[in-house]
Write a structure and sequence with these properties.
By secondary structure, the chain is of the alpha/beta class. The chain contains 9 helices and 15 strands. Strands 3, 4, 5, 6, 7, 14 and 15 form a 7-stranded mixed β-sheet that branches. Strand 11, helix 7 (211-217) and strand 12 (221-229) form a beta-alpha-beta unit.
Length: 301
């Protein structure tokens, strides 16, 4: 098969589109023909060697987390999937034409959702859902979702609204207009100290950004409230011992992924897709993703 192979850590130029051995499904595994994958920050952090202490690449190796495709072979002991099923998941080594996926982390794509579009969803929607859930917020409470126009942030806003929570979208001043489309009850500019000072006491914060914004917002959380984050904890969290700080790592959950994907299919949640590039152009895709911006970049196999 063709795959995007990494022979050494470095910039986007180390991503080489070349021949790589076909994977073979073992017990409990499914072989998927990849229709598309997507570019996530974890992908370019791995490529650059920033995660080598806990998530290394074994050279020559592959990267990639999101996958959407079609089942082409079933390994021993797998039940519930058939050849021809359209599936998606968070997996490993997805920048390739073929990918072996543990059946336990595989989900069927909801009927009516585009196969290529589905590749944008697994990591960001699952993470956003779990970030919002980690705050423990309940109906009638108030949460700020920081980075609400990002894909994880949008997913967290949607999840919180499903719980009956008052959601404040925290974004930069230049993102204020765009933030009005994510479904939050109101918007606050996180780079405006006066706006943050004027926030009401918060039951929770769901953070996708970190940095100085986190240090300012933790001060607004009520005693007994929760500061949940997918990035680093606020540097000044020790000053607020009454606030519970929770670090969220995304974990696969089939029901969550299916629920979020159905919301996208039904137009209740929008995960923007900014570009669709051929898999062979993974280097260009990662270079573009590292510059930032709204919208997922998909790699179509």
């Amino acid at each position: 098969m063709k795959a995007v192979v990494v022979h050494q850590y470095g910039g986007p130029e180390v991503l080489k589109f070349e021949e790589y051995p076909d994977p073979v499904p073992g017990s409990g595994e499914v072989l998927v023909r990849v229709a598309a994958t997507s570019v996530n920050p974890i992908d370019y952090k791995r490529r650059a060697g920033l995660t080598k202490d806990f998530y290394p690449i074994h050279f020559p190796g592959l990267i990639g987390v999101d996958i959407a495709g079609t089942v082409v072979k079933i390994g021993p002991g797998v039940e519930g999937f058939s050849v021809g099923d359209q599936v998606f998941a968070m997996a490993d080594n997805t920048y390739a034409e073929l990918c072996v996926v543990n059946a336990a982390v595989l989900a069927k794509i909801p009927r009516g959702l585009d196969l290529i579009q589905a590749a944008a969803l697994p990591l960001v929607t699952t993470t956003g859902n779990q970030l919002a859930s980690a705050t423990g917020i309940k109906a009638g409470q108030t949460v700020v979702v920081v980075g609400a126009v990002g894909n994880v942030g949008r997913s967290a806003v949607f999840t919180a609204k499903q719980l009956g929570v008052t959601v404040i979208a925290g974004v930069l001043k230049r993102q204020m207009d765009e933030a009005k489309t994510v479904g939050a009850d109101r918007v606050v500019a996180t780079d405006d100290d006066t706006a943050i000072a004027n926030l009401p006491p918060l039951d929770a914060v769901a953070d996708t950004v970190g940095g100085r914004t986190a240090e300012k917002l933790i001060a607004k959380v009520k005693p007994g409230g929760v500061y949940a984050s997918v990035v680093e904890a606020p540097q000044n969290s020790a000053k607020y011992p009454s606030v519970k700080v929770v670090h969220v790592f995304s974990k696969f959950d089939r029901e969550t992924l299916e629920f979020m994907a159905e919301a996208v299919r039904d137009g209740k949640l929008v995960i923007p897709i900014s570009q669709k590039l051929p898999l062979r152009e993974a280097a260009e895709a990662q270079a573009a993703a590292e510059k930032g911006g709204v919208g997922k970049i998909l790699l179509v196999a």
